[in-house]
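FORM 12-B: Structure-to-Sequence Request
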Protein backbone atom coordinates (compact mmCIF):
# COMPACT_ATOMS: atom_id res chain seq x y z
CA UNK A 1 0.00 0.00 0.00
CA UNK A 2 1.04 3.57 -0.62
CA UNK A 3 -0.67 6.39 1.25
CA UNK A 4 -0.07 10.12 1.16
CA UNK A 5 -1.92 12.92 2.86
CA UNK A 6 -1.88 16.37 1.22
CA UNK A 7 -2.44 19.28 3.60
CA UNK A 8 -3.71 22.47 1.93
CA UNK A 9 -2.93 25.45 4.11
CA UNK A 10 -4.93 27.90 2.00
CA UNK A 11 -8.21 26.04 2.50
CA UNK A 12 -7.53 24.03 5.68
CA UNK A 13 -8.37 20.90 3.66
CA UNK A 14 -6.70 17.52 3.44
CA UNK A 15 -6.80 15.31 0.35
CA UNK A 16 -5.50 11.78 -0.07
CA UNK A 17 -3.63 9.58 -2.52
CA UNK A 18 -4.11 5.86 -1.85
CA UNK A 19 -2.52 3.20 -4.03
CA UNK A 20 -1.71 -0.47 -4.30
CA UNK A 21 2.01 -1.14 -4.66
CA UNK A 22 1.07 -4.43 -6.28
CA UNK A 23 -1.45 -3.38 -8.94
CA UNK A 24 -0.10 0.22 -9.30
CA UNK A 25 -3.69 1.52 -9.17
CA UNK A 26 -4.39 4.69 -7.21
CA UNK A 27 -7.36 6.63 -5.88
CA UNK A 28 -7.41 10.33 -5.07
CA UNK A 29 -9.92 11.37 -2.43
CA UNK A 30 -11.23 14.96 -2.18
CA UNK A 31 -8.83 16.41 -4.79
CA UNK A 32 -8.27 20.15 -4.75
CA UNK A 33 -8.72 22.24 -7.87
CA UNK A 34 -4.96 22.30 -8.50
CA UNK A 35 -4.56 18.72 -9.71
CA UNK A 36 -0.92 18.85 -10.86
CA UNK A 37 0.52 17.58 -7.53
CA UNK A 38 -1.55 14.36 -7.84
CA UNK A 39 -0.50 13.88 -11.47
CA UNK A 40 3.16 14.50 -10.57
CA UNK A 41 3.05 12.02 -7.69
CA UNK A 42 1.43 9.36 -9.88
CA UNK A 43 4.10 9.85 -12.51
CA UNK A 44 7.03 9.90 -10.09
CA UNK A 45 5.86 6.78 -8.29
CA UNK A 46 4.49 5.06 -11.39
CA UNK A 47 0.89 4.73 -10.28
CA UNK A 48 -2.22 4.98 -12.43
CA UNK A 49 -4.99 7.13 -10.96
CA UNK A 50 -8.08 5.03 -11.67
CA UNK A 51 -10.48 6.31 -8.99
CA UNK A 52 -11.43 9.83 -7.95
CA UNK A 53 -13.76 10.07 -4.96
CA UNK A 54 -15.25 13.10 -3.25
CA UNK A 55 -16.56 12.44 0.26
CA UNK A 56 -19.24 15.11 -0.36
CA UNK A 57 -20.07 18.17 -2.42
CA UNK A 58 -17.76 20.81 -0.98
CA UNK A 59 -19.09 24.26 -0.17
CA UNK A 60 -15.84 25.92 0.86
CA UNK A 61 -13.51 25.15 -2.05
CA UNK A 62 -13.73 24.18 -5.69
CA UNK A 63 -13.22 20.45 -6.16
CA UNK A 64 -10.71 19.10 -8.66
CA UNK A 65 -12.78 15.93 -9.12
CA UNK A 66 -13.89 16.40 -12.72
CA UNK A 67 -10.59 17.92 -13.86
CA UNK A 68 -8.62 15.02 -12.37
CA UNK A 69 -10.97 12.38 -13.77
CA UNK A 70 -10.74 14.03 -17.22
CA UNK A 71 -6.95 14.22 -17.07
CA UNK A 72 -6.49 10.59 -16.04
CA UNK A 73 -9.55 8.74 -17.36
CA UNK A 74 -10.33 7.77 -13.76
CA UNK A 75 -13.81 6.91 -12.59
CA UNK A 76 -15.44 9.65 -10.50
CA UNK A 77 -17.47 8.38 -7.56
CA UNK A 78 -19.89 10.25 -5.33
CA UNK A 79 -22.65 9.06 -3.04
CA UNK A 80 -25.74 8.17 -5.08
CA UNK A 81 -27.65 11.04 -3.43
CA UNK A 82 -25.30 13.74 -4.78
CA UNK A 83 -27.30 16.33 -6.72
CA UNK A 84 -25.04 17.24 -9.63
CA UNK A 85 -25.50 17.90 -13.34
CA UNK A 86 -22.63 15.70 -14.53
CA UNK A 87 -22.24 11.93 -14.88
CA UNK A 88 -20.59 10.02 -12.02
CA UNK A 89 -20.36 6.54 -10.56
CA UNK A 90 -22.99 6.43 -7.79
CA UNK A 91 -21.94 4.60 -4.62
CA UNK A 92 -24.03 3.57 -1.63
CA UNK A 93 -23.49 2.41 1.94
CA UNK A 94 -21.59 -0.90 1.99
CA UNK A 95 -20.25 -0.64 -1.57
CA UNK A 96 -16.63 -1.58 -2.11
CA UNK A 97 -14.13 0.04 -4.44
CA UNK A 98 -11.03 -2.05 -5.16
CA UNK A 99 -7.49 -0.90 -5.83
CA UNK A 100 -5.73 -4.18 -6.46
CA UNK A 101 -5.89 -5.93 -3.08
CA UNK A 102 -6.98 -2.78 -1.21
CA UNK A 103 -10.64 -2.54 -0.28
CA UNK A 104 -12.25 0.88 0.10
CA UNK A 105 -15.61 0.43 1.79
CA UNK A 106 -18.20 3.19 1.50
CA UNK A 107 -19.97 4.22 4.71
CA UNK A 108 -22.87 6.63 4.21
CA UNK A 109 -22.49 9.31 6.88
CA UNK A 110 -25.11 12.02 6.18
CA UNK A 111 -25.22 15.10 8.39
CA UNK A 112 -22.57 17.54 7.22
CA UNK A 113 -24.31 17.07 3.88
CA UNK A 114 -26.92 14.51 2.83
CA UNK A 115 -24.50 12.81 0.44
CA UNK A 116 -21.52 12.69 2.84
CA UNK A 117 -19.61 9.43 2.88
CA UNK A 118 -16.64 8.11 4.84
CA UNK A 119 -14.22 5.56 3.38
CA UNK A 120 -12.93 2.58 5.33
CA UNK A 121 -9.66 1.11 4.08
CA UNK A 122 -8.59 -2.50 4.45
CA UNK A 123 -5.29 -3.86 3.20
CA UNK A 124 -5.69 -7.68 3.35
CA UNK A 125 -1.95 -8.17 2.95
CA UNK A 126 -1.59 -6.70 6.46
CA UNK A 127 -4.85 -7.71 8.12
CA UNK A 128 -8.38 -8.86 7.38
CA UNK A 129 -9.61 -5.93 9.50
CA UNK A 130 -9.86 -2.28 8.39
CA UNK A 131 -7.00 -0.05 9.48
CA UNK A 132 -7.78 3.46 8.21
CA UNK A 133 -10.82 5.70 7.89
CA UNK A 134 -11.06 8.71 5.58
CA UNK A 135 -13.72 10.48 7.61
CA UNK A 136 -14.56 13.39 5.27
CA UNK A 137 -16.30 16.19 7.12
CA UNK A 138 -18.06 13.81 9.50
CA UNK A 139 -15.40 13.21 12.17
CA UNK A 140 -12.58 15.70 12.69
CA UNK A 141 -9.68 15.72 15.12
CA UNK A 142 -11.27 17.21 18.23
CA UNK A 143 -14.53 18.15 16.51
CA UNK A 144 -17.28 16.97 14.18
CA UNK A 145 -18.37 18.56 10.89
CA UNK A 146 -21.04 21.24 11.01
CA UNK A 147 -24.25 20.37 9.16
CA UNK A 148 -24.13 22.65 6.08
CA UNK A 149 -27.87 23.11 6.22
CA UNK A 150 -27.83 23.38 10.00
CA UNK A 151 -30.90 22.81 12.08
CA UNK A 152 -32.21 19.92 14.08
CA UNK A 153 -32.39 17.47 11.20
CA UNK A 154 -28.76 17.96 10.17
CA UNK A 155 -27.63 17.59 13.78
CA UNK A 156 -29.63 14.36 14.24
CA UNK A 157 -28.17 12.83 11.10
CA UNK A 158 -24.66 13.91 12.09
CA UNK A 159 -25.12 12.38 15.55
CA UNK A 160 -26.15 9.02 14.07
CA UNK A 161 -23.30 9.11 11.53
CA UNK A 162 -20.67 9.89 14.14
CA UNK A 163 -21.99 7.04 16.34
CA UNK A 164 -21.67 4.71 13.34
CA UNK A 165 -17.98 5.66 12.95
CA UNK A 166 -17.37 5.31 16.70
CA UNK A 167 -18.43 1.67 16.49
CA UNK A 168 -15.18 0.95 14.62
CA UNK A 169 -12.27 -0.54 16.59
CA UNK A 170 -10.09 1.85 18.62
CA UNK A 171 -6.99 1.29 16.51
CA UNK A 172 -8.51 2.51 13.24
CA UNK A 173 -6.62 5.61 12.16
CA UNK A 174 -8.77 8.58 11.18
CA UNK A 175 -7.89 10.99 8.38
CA UNK A 176 -10.37 13.87 7.99
CA UNK A 177 -11.03 16.15 4.99
CA UNK A 178 -10.20 19.22 7.12
CA UNK A 179 -7.60 20.05 9.74
CA UNK A 180 -8.83 23.66 10.05
CA UNK A 181 -11.31 25.94 8.33
CA UNK A 182 -14.97 26.76 8.25
CA UNK A 183 -16.47 23.24 8.22
CA UNK A 184 -16.01 22.85 11.98
CA UNK A 185 -15.72 25.04 15.06
CA UNK A 186 -12.99 23.60 17.25
CA UNK A 187 -10.64 21.41 15.23
CA UNK A 188 -7.42 20.68 17.07
CA UNK A 189 -5.13 21.20 14.07
CA UNK A 190 -3.51 17.76 14.10
CA UNK A 191 -3.83 16.08 10.70
CA UNK A 192 -4.93 12.64 11.94
CA UNK A 193 -6.14 10.71 14.97
CA UNK A 194 -7.63 7.34 15.93
CA UNK A 195 -11.19 6.24 16.63
CA UNK A 196 -10.21 5.33 20.20
CA UNK A 197 -8.57 8.68 20.95
CA UNK A 198 -11.55 10.64 19.62
CA UNK A 199 -14.01 8.47 21.50
CA UNK A 200 -12.19 9.30 24.74
CA UNK A 201 -11.01 12.86 24.18
CA UNK A 202 -13.02 14.58 21.43
CA UNK A 203 -14.90 17.27 23.45
CA UNK A 204 -18.00 17.11 21.24
CA UNK A 205 -18.24 13.34 21.71
CA UNK A 206 -18.20 13.76 25.49
CA UNK A 207 -21.46 15.75 25.31
CA UNK A 208 -24.80 14.17 26.09
CA UNK A 209 -26.96 13.48 23.05
CA UNK A 210 -29.08 16.55 23.83
CA UNK A 211 -26.07 18.84 24.18
CA UNK A 212 -24.52 17.41 21.00
CA UNK A 213 -27.72 18.14 19.09
CA UNK A 214 -27.93 21.64 20.58
CA UNK A 215 -24.32 22.56 19.82
CA UNK A 216 -24.25 20.94 16.36
CA UNK A 217 -27.65 22.34 15.38
CA UNK A 218 -26.59 25.98 15.81
CA UNK A 219 -26.20 27.38 12.34
CA UNK A 220 -22.84 29.14 11.93
CA UNK A 221 -22.34 31.78 9.21
CA UNK A 222 -22.01 30.24 5.75
CA UNK A 223 -18.46 30.36 4.36
CA UNK A 224 -17.23 33.00 1.90
CA UNK A 225 -18.68 32.49 -1.60
CA UNK A 226 -20.37 29.24 -0.57
CA UNK A 227 -23.23 29.65 -3.06
CA UNK A 228 -20.95 30.07 -6.08
CA UNK A 229 -18.57 27.30 -4.94
CA UNK A 230 -21.36 24.79 -4.35
CA UNK A 231 -23.03 25.62 -7.69
CA UNK A 232 -19.67 25.06 -9.41
CA UNK A 233 -19.12 21.74 -7.66
CA UNK A 234 -22.65 20.68 -8.68
CA UNK A 235 -21.95 21.54 -12.31
CA UNK A 236 -24.63 24.25 -12.32
CA UNK A 237 -22.28 27.20 -12.78
CA UNK A 238 -18.60 27.82 -13.35
CA UNK A 239 -16.88 29.92 -10.74
CA UNK A 240 -13.68 27.89 -11.00
CA UNK A 241 -11.74 31.17 -11.21
CA UNK A 242 -12.43 31.58 -7.48
CA UNK A 243 -9.89 28.83 -6.81
CA UNK A 244 -7.15 30.85 -8.49
CA UNK A 245 -7.48 33.84 -6.17
CA UNK A 246 -5.10 34.19 -3.29
CA UNK A 247 -6.87 34.89 0.01
CA UNK A 248 -3.96 37.13 0.95
CA UNK A 249 -3.69 38.99 -2.36
CA UNK A 250 -3.79 42.35 -0.73
CA UNK A 251 -4.09 43.83 2.67
CA UNK A 252 -6.90 46.30 3.08
CA UNK A 253 -7.01 49.40 5.26
CA UNK A 254 -8.97 49.23 8.50
CA UNK A 255 -11.33 51.92 9.72
CA UNK A 256 -11.84 52.22 13.49
CA UNK A 257 -15.50 52.37 14.61
CA UNK A 258 -14.93 55.58 16.60
CA UNK A 259 -14.03 57.53 13.43
CA UNK A 260 -16.09 55.47 10.98
CA UNK A 261 -19.14 57.80 10.75
CA UNK A 262 -16.92 60.76 9.86
CA UNK A 263 -14.88 58.60 7.45
CA UNK A 264 -18.07 57.41 5.71
CA UNK A 265 -19.35 60.97 5.31
CA UNK A 266 -16.03 62.33 4.13
CA UNK A 267 -15.57 59.55 1.53
CA UNK A 268 -19.25 59.23 0.58
CA UNK A 269 -18.61 55.53 1.10
CA UNK A 270 -20.98 52.60 0.69
CA UNK A 271 -21.28 50.17 3.61
CA UNK A 272 -21.54 46.51 2.58
CA UNK A 273 -22.77 44.27 5.40
CA UNK A 274 -21.60 40.68 4.77
CA UNK A 275 -23.39 39.04 7.70
CA UNK A 276 -26.30 36.62 7.27
CA UNK A 277 -29.68 38.28 6.48
CA UNK A 278 -31.01 37.41 9.96
CA UNK A 279 -28.10 39.23 11.61
CA UNK A 280 -28.59 42.23 9.33
CA UNK A 281 -32.28 42.37 10.23
CA UNK A 282 -31.44 42.61 13.94
CA UNK A 283 -29.64 45.92 13.47
CA UNK A 284 -27.22 47.37 10.95
CA UNK A 285 -25.29 50.51 10.05
CA UNK A 286 -27.65 53.07 8.46
CA UNK A 287 -27.78 52.79 4.63
CA UNK A 288 -25.68 49.58 4.67
CA UNK A 289 -26.52 47.14 1.88
CA UNK A 290 -26.78 43.45 2.77
CA UNK A 291 -24.62 41.05 0.76
CA UNK A 292 -23.92 37.91 2.87
CA UNK A 293 -20.35 36.69 2.40
CA UNK A 294 -21.70 33.34 1.18
CA UNK A 295 -23.19 35.15 -1.84
CA UNK A 296 -20.52 37.75 -2.48
CA UNK A 297 -19.24 36.35 -5.81
CA UNK A 298 -22.80 36.34 -7.17
CA UNK A 299 -23.39 40.01 -6.33
CA UNK A 300 -20.22 41.72 -7.48
CA UNK A 301 -22.29 43.92 -9.79
CA UNK A 302 -23.79 45.63 -6.74
CA UNK A 303 -20.44 46.69 -5.36
CA UNK A 304 -18.94 49.78 -7.05
CA UNK A 305 -15.28 49.87 -8.03
CA UNK A 306 -15.18 53.66 -8.34
CA UNK A 307 -16.48 54.40 -4.87
CA UNK A 308 -15.10 53.83 -1.39
CA UNK A 309 -16.60 50.74 0.20
CA UNK A 310 -16.54 49.85 3.89
CA UNK A 311 -17.13 46.15 4.53
CA UNK A 312 -18.72 45.24 7.87
CA UNK A 313 -19.69 42.03 9.67
CA UNK A 314 -20.30 41.12 13.31
CA UNK A 315 -16.80 41.37 14.76
CA UNK A 316 -14.48 42.02 11.82
CA UNK A 317 -13.38 38.53 10.68
CA UNK A 318 -15.78 37.80 7.85
CA UNK A 319 -15.53 41.37 6.60
CA UNK A 320 -11.73 41.20 6.45
CA UNK A 321 -11.84 38.01 4.35
CA UNK A 322 -14.53 39.54 2.13
CA UNK A 323 -12.60 42.80 1.72
CA UNK A 324 -9.43 40.89 0.81
CA UNK A 325 -11.40 38.89 -1.73
CA UNK A 326 -12.71 42.12 -3.29
CA UNK A 327 -9.22 43.62 -3.24
CA UNK A 328 -7.87 40.58 -5.08
CA UNK A 329 -10.51 41.24 -7.76
CA UNK A 330 -9.33 44.81 -8.26
CA UNK A 331 -11.58 46.67 -5.83
CA UNK A 332 -8.90 49.12 -4.75
CA UNK A 333 -11.15 51.36 -2.68
CA UNK A 334 -12.29 48.78 -0.17
CA UNK A 335 -11.73 49.05 3.60
CA UNK A 336 -12.63 46.90 6.59
CA UNK A 337 -14.62 48.03 9.64
CA UNK A 338 -12.42 46.98 12.55
CA UNK A 339 -14.37 45.23 15.31
CA UNK A 340 -17.49 45.04 13.13
CA UNK A 341 -21.03 46.07 13.92
CA UNK A 342 -20.52 44.96 17.52
CA UNK A 343 -17.89 47.66 18.16
CA UNK A 344 -19.86 50.15 16.01
CA UNK A 345 -22.76 49.79 18.43
CA UNK A 346 -20.55 49.74 21.55
CA UNK A 347 -19.05 53.14 20.74
CA UNK A 348 -22.56 54.62 20.43
CA UNK A 349 -22.95 54.98 16.64
CA UNK A 350 -26.48 54.92 15.20
CA UNK A 351 -28.18 51.66 14.18
CA UNK A 352 -31.07 50.98 11.81
CA UNK A 353 -33.48 48.16 12.48
FE1 LIG B 1 -17.27 20.16 3.73
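FORM 12-B RESPONSE
SEQUENCE OUT:
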Amino acid sequence: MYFKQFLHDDTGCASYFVASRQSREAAVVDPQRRIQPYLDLAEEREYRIVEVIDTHLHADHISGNRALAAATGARLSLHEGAEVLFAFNPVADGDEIRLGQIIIQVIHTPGHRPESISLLLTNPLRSPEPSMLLSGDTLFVGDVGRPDFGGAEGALLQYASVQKLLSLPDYVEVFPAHFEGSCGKGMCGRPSTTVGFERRFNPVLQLSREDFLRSTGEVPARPLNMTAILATNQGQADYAWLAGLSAHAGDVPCVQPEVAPAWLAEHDALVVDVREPSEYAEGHIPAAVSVPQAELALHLGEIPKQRDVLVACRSGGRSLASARFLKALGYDRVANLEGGTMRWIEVGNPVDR
